[in-house]
Amino acid sequence: MGEQAKPLLPFLQRGDELQRADPKVAYYCRMFACEEGMRTSDKTPEMRELLSLLVLQLEKTKPSAGLQGAEEDEAYVENFALRLFAKADKLDRGGRRDAKTAKLFYVASIVIETLRQFDVSNGAKHELSDEMAGKQRYAAWRAGELAKANREGRTAAPPPEEGEDESASAARTTGGGGTAGGGGGTAGGGGEEATTTTTTTQAFADGVSAAHVADAQKHAKYAVSALGFEDVPTAIDNLNKALALLTGVRGLREP
């Protein structure tokens, strides 16, 4: 697969994994990958070939996907993601902090991302609700934490207490507004608020909007999560997106 198409790989993989278990969710994973690929400028021949094959696959699997209206299907995919998240969270809190639980969190974060394809206007991706954005941030962060611990041969630290704000807990555990800092989540505690305020003030001073800083933090966190699964192409893609938001230029290439 060409470098240009590698950011689509996590969604294509989920489509293949879920085809038998849930054809509808598999369809929307592939559809999201297809739409993301269509947005790519200066498409390479490899990307064009991939998109052509993907369109054919979507047409082939559409009859068995059980598609309904956009609202019904969005609710269906969201419910699937929430069930994945709940299962992973239950295993995590029950002490099963292994590679399987990490994978469940990771897949939940990917499926939540596909919700951005619904209710698209003027070519812009749909914004996630605050609840789903918070769960996506937490799932990506927790997947990375569990995968890293598993790779190092140790047991991961317990998850934050239930009821604690997921976005804020992920940010605090990884040091506030660093690579795992969420964008748009509610802050918990005075220290978090102070960090957020300082970051926002500095962002305006540097000519970067607070919204861009929040989005850059989100992509940096996704990069950390992807590295937990040795998914280097996805990590590089998200780091490039973070750099582009902060500097206006793409800064990394895959080695």
UniProtKB/TrEMBL annotation:
CC terms in the record's Gene Ontology section: endosome membrane; multivesicular body
Subcellular location: Cytoplasm; Endosome membrane
Domain Vta1 C-terminal: 213-247
Keywords: Cytoplasm, Endosome, Membrane, Protein transport, Transport
Region named Disordered: 149-196
Pfam families registered for this protein in UniProt: Vta1, Vta1_C
Database matches in InterPro entries: Vta1-like, Vta1/CALS_N, Vta1/CALS_N_sf, Vta1_C
Domain of life (superkingdom): Eukaryota
Bias (Gly residues): 174-192
Keyword Protein transport attributed: yes
Record-level GO BP terms: late endosome to vacuole transport via multivesicular body sorting pathway; protein transport
UniProt topology in membrane: Peripheral membrane protein
Principal subcellular localization: cytoplasm
Domain Vta1/callose synthase N-terminal: 8-151
Family in the record: Belongs to the VTA1 family.
Protein name stated in the entry: Predicted protein
Organism of provenance: Micromonas pusilla (strain CCMP1545) (Picoplanktonic green alga)
